[in-house]
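From the methods appendix. Each design record in this collection lists the tokenized structure first, followed by the designed amino acid sequence. Records were kept in a plain field format so they could be parsed without special tools. The example shown here is representative of the layout used throughout.

RECORD:
FOLD TOKENS (476 positions):
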């Protein structure tokens, strides 16, 4: 056991809700004789969430319940607080006599500013703040081009990323759990010994499509490694199948370590695992973009598109959000999304491109709706995905390559089963006509039990016309 520098330290967890392979916890336990694990229900973030049924709070709360149980089985417990961390973390450090605070990097602009202020407040009292990389393997300016600049194109970034990869970069971070503070930790009245009940944070429990917590994340990763990884390349584009890992929610909240995901991918040979690793590198790429080009939060990555005036209407935006566009693949995706908070990657691309190129609505409106609704919402990846689809981003889809939503539907939902699950009024259409029911004749529509314009809407736009308008808008 290394000699402790500090008598006591706080490990402030935020987007790393687990105990295993946890950089900040490992560092805290290496540096301090006693470590208190704390979480703050961050009111500046929570107060901006309009919906008391927000599913993400259920995911976080249940993951913290498991984390608290894990700590209790080791003789300690979690400490939760609610309020502004800039005020609470220094106060908790003072009250508990913690000389240092350990946390994981979070490069979202709000978090960066918050952490700078927390570090400043701690320093005033002679306490230190240590933040460590954890949610990606390579961050910020670690992967640079030969000229020392951040990459603007994925393929060379990915090559450089791989060239830097060593076993140490993805090695497990092991914590000395014997150094956890013993229960009961003496606390002031404003700190809660355990996980604050969800109702006290102002949210209601919501149904989730996946199990929260570290145990469930491991189980999902193991199942995917055994049954999904080798076929990933062939199955990943079909929303009707379970061809992807479904781990993004766990990665977002850190109930799984990204290093463990990489170790899993590297341990399996073949094209499936290689493709999956590639997708994890896309995640790293978008984190790098956010850290180096933070203007993307407000405006287009590519300056030449910053002034586009998107002519799309509120009515079209609302039809998109409610799955009432008359394009079945888009509508099924949007209805599934509203009901579950989840959307398959292929559908994210199709619906984002439909909003921006077919409906000509500003990508920021779609990005904001996804940000409110996605269980796996991550600023870097969401912004990256939207700007890719809108052709305004770093290494984006060129503006003249516009997805045809009906062809996408035929290709990626060939039997229409995904459409029929979420647009049950189209159940009577066969596998050919379900992708574009408005092209069928009146008798066929009656026979299918759903006349277009009655139970299912007419297409709200003509794809060919809108595609030409979108291209003209970009050219202009
Ligand atoms: C418009 C749009 C918005 C998006 N918003 C988000 C978001 O808020 N949060 C988010 O995690 N992903 C986002 N993505 C990326 C991607 O759609 C999801 O990561 C993926 O669907 C998650 O499913 P999975 O875990 O089964 O992925 P898998 O296919 O199993 O991939 C493994 C992991 O790699 C990462 N990944 C995969 N594809 C991408 C990608 N294109 N960009 C970045 N990372 C990727 C994710 O962490 C994912 O969990 C967005 C994509 C688009 C087009």
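DESIGN:
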């Amino acid at each position: 056991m290394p000699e402790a520098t500090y008598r006591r330290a706080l490990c402030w967890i935020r987007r790393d809700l687990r105990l295993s392979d946890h950089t900040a916890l490992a560092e805290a336990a290496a540096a301090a004789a006693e470590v208190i694990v704390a979480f703050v229900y961050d009111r500046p973030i929570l107060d901006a969430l309009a919906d008391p049924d927000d599913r993400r709070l259920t995911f976080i709360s249940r993951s913290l319940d498991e984390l608290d149980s894990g700590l209790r089985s080791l003789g300690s417990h979690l400490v939760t607080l609610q309020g502004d961390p800039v005020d609470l973390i220094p106060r908790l450090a003072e009250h508990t006599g913690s000389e240092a605070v350990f946390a994981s990097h979070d490069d979202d602009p709000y978090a960066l500013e918050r952490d700078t202020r927390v570090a400043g407040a701690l320093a005033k009292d002679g306490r230190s703040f240590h933040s460590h990389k954890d949610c990606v393997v390579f961050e910020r300016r670690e992967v640079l081009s030969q000229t020392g600049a951040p990459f603007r194109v994925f393929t060379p970034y990915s090559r450089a990323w791989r060239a830097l990869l060593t076993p140490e970069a993805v090695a497990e971070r092991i914590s000395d759990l014997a150094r956890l503070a013993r229960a009961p930790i003496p606390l002031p009245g404003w700190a809660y010994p355990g996980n604050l009940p969800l109702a006290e944070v102002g949210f209601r429990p919501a149904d989730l499509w996946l199990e929260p917590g570290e145990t469930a994340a491991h189980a999902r990763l193991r199942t995917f490694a055994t049954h999904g990884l080798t076929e990933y390349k062939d199955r990943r584009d079909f929303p009707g199948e379970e061809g992807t890992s479904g781990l993004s929610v766990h990665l977002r909240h850190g109930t799984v370590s990204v290093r463990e995901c990489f170790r899993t991918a590297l341990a399996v040979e073949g094209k499936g695992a290689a493709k999956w690793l590639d997708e994890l590198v896309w995640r790293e790429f978008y984190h790098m973009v956010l850290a180096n080009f933070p203007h993307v939060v407000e405006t287009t990555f590519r300056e030449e598109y910053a002034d586009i005036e998107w002519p799309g209407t509120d009515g079209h935006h609302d039809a998109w959000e409610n799955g009432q566009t008359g394009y079945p693949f888009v509508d099924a995706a949007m209805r599934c999304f509203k009901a579950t908070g989840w959307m398959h990657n292929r559908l994210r691309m199709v619906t984002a491109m439909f909003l921006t190129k077919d409906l000509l609505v500003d990508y920021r409106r779609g990005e904001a709706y996804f940000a409110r609704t996605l269980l796996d919402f991550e600023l870097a990846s969401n912004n990256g995905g939207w700007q890719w689809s809108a052709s305004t981003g770093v290494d984006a889809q060129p503006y003249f390559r516009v997805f045809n939503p009906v062809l996408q539907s035929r290709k990626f939902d060939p039997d229409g089963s995904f459409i029929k699950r979420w647009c049950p009024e189209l159940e009577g259409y066969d596998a050919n006509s379900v992708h574009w029911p408005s092209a069928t004749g009146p008798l066929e529509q009656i026979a299918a039990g759903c006349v277009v314009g009655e139970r299912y809407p007419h297409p709200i736009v003509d794809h060919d016309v809108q595609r030409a308008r979108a291209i003209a808008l970009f050219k202009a």
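APPENDIX NOTE: The first strand starts at residue 6 and ends at 13.
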